[in-house]
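step: validate -> pass
step: tokenize input -> pass
step: predict -> running
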Amino acid sequence: MAKSKVTGKNAASHASKTLKSTSTGSKSKSAAGSALSQTKAPKKTTSSNVATKASSVLRDGRTSKSSKSAAGSALSQKTSKKTGRK
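step: predict -> pass
step: emit ->
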């Protein structure tokens, strides 16, 4: 079952700025693209690969506020795999 979260206007604006920037890295752009594609699509979720990149963007101290906003939005729309492992 897909989550019902979508990217908000503010995060979508930040994602757009991130994608337009020439100095932004590929991980930031991947996360921003994922967030932007989920703007009006509640059934879309972030892939594991993009979630890993978004996590890396959030941990990087050199990343801009816009990139972090887009990455956070993409990461919040990742479906979680809950297993019975301990």
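step: describe -> The helical segments are 9-20, 26-37, 48-59, 65-76.
step: cleanup -> pass
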